[in-house]
Amino acid sequence: MIWEDTGFLLSKSKYSENSLIAEIYTKNHGKTSGIIFGGTSKKIKNYLQTGNELFINYNTKSLNTLGYFKIEILKVYSPLFFDNFQKLNCINSSMNLIKLLTAESQNNVSIYNLIEKFYLIMSNDNWLQNYIYWELELYKNLGYDLDFLSLVKKKIIDNKIIYIAEGHSEKKIVPNFLVEKKNIETDIKTLLNGLKITGDFLEKTILKPNNINFPISRQYFLSSLK
Predict the structure, then answer these.
(1) Single pTM value for the model
(2) Which residue in 6, 58, 187, 221 could disulfide with 93, CB within 3.0 to 4.6 Å?
(3) Backbone phi, then psi, for 55, in 5-degree steps?
(4) What value does the CA radius of gyration of the chain take, rounded to a whole number of Å?
(5) Which CATH code, of 2.40.50.140, 3.30.450.20, 1.10.760.10, 3.40.50.450, is assigned to 2-79?
């Protein structure tokens, strides 16, 4: 079976002295794994950075065997952020989330489009707030919708609007930007609280029921923001 497609590099690992096994999220074939022969050579390895967009020629004998990629670079993204540790960690964390949460060979163009949207967000000044919205959109596309409006109670305290989510054993204050999605939030503590809430949802609702460990790449991302 041979096909051509475009895709974003999600991960790579050493396969032999000169080759790599790569996972690529493609537009028309979903997440696909394959060998890149010569992937450690100077000619290729420089643009095999997580998150870069590639043109792919994929060849495999059958659906049950690991095929191999012939690749060309389409768009270089990750190196654009080598001088921004926070955004670089965000790219690694996001691509790893897609790797963990998507199934092999299941096409979902919405996920591919979200990756393209991700890089538009990275170019904005208000990127962190918009990334949090992006993450929630990713979960929704995977079947895990977190609707804050249905979960919180609105209260007025000292002439300020406060949103509170009440669980069986605890109460949480939910940042206004997660509920209203209209005001620009610049306070890093508030944004980190928003990421903690979405991270708790990720762990308790998505990862644990599927026996997936919480990704270290997301922990690195959060640490880089503090």
Answers:
(1) 0.92
(2) 221
(3) -95, 135
(4) 19
(5) 2.40.50.140
